[in-house]
Amino acid sequence: xxxxxRVFVKMERNGCEADIVTYAAxxxxxxxxxxxxxxxxxxxxxxxxxCMPNQLIYLHIMLAHEKKEELEECMELKGKMQKVGCVPxxxxxxxxxxxxxxxxxxxxxxxxxxxMEANGFSPGIDSFLILTHGLLGQGCLVExxxxxxxxxxxxxxxxPQYGILKELLNALLRGEKLEMAKDVWSCxxxxxxxxxxDAWTIWIHALFSNGHVKEACSYCLDxxxxxxxxxxETFAKLMRGLRKxxxxxxxxxxxxxxxxxxxxxxxxxxxxxRRGERDLKEKVxxxxxxxxxxxxxxxxxxxxxxxxx
Length: 309
What we know:
Protein name: Pentacotripeptide-repeat region of PRORP domain-containing protein
Organism: Hevea brasiliensis (Para rubber tree)
Family: Belongs to the PPR family. P subfamily.
Helix content: over 70%
Low-confidence stretches: none
Oligomer: single chain
Largest sheet: none
InterPro entries: PPR_rpt (IPR002885), TPR-like_helical_dom_sf (IPR011990)
Keywords: Repeat
């Protein structure tokens, strides 16, 4: 960066005015090296020279502040942008919202969100994901549900976003908020979202894993009524749970529907069933092996610590 600055100073001495691309490169370089003060010096210099910075230049500085978890500085920078007539765009708002949620300043994140909408910006999928994930991280389940359902209502729930769906449903069920979880799922269904086997599997497995076996089976029947066949592992998981509950009625009904769907798809029910049992065993074994490895690493860490002492 020192060499770049020497070239820049030499250009100006020779009467060659720098353009916005040159300024952007310098500011980006200083931000990457963590020299935010130098970036601000260049920013002030370009404004004095009558070269107005754009959103990308401010974004470089904003990201540098985010890396250092400097929320107040991000808020101030957003204000400085507006003073010089550079309106923050969605990427700027997203950085501030993300950092506010990360630092637990959820109210600040929501205020910035409201400001974003007041400025005429329609939140995109990235904005919704950032805020919903941040709210979940701070345990704000009610607010997370509200923003997630708004995202669904705007038709922004697609397969790549199923990660946040899984995170939300499991957080609700772990927090014993079954009715809220059902309400979220009902919102997805009633808003006409296209539900594939992955979405149904996330919902059914979340219910099952959190002790709601009967509800999981009921929604499995709904899934098949919608023409979606459960994955072999899901079928095996439900059958194992029903055996523990001694609930033969559910087991017979689900098995019969799966058998018919397998026949319609010219699939052997026996091979489907064997595959599910095999996948379930492999998953359980992988989970156990993972716990053993983590336990060994913890033990190894304690042993090394004692040796150091």
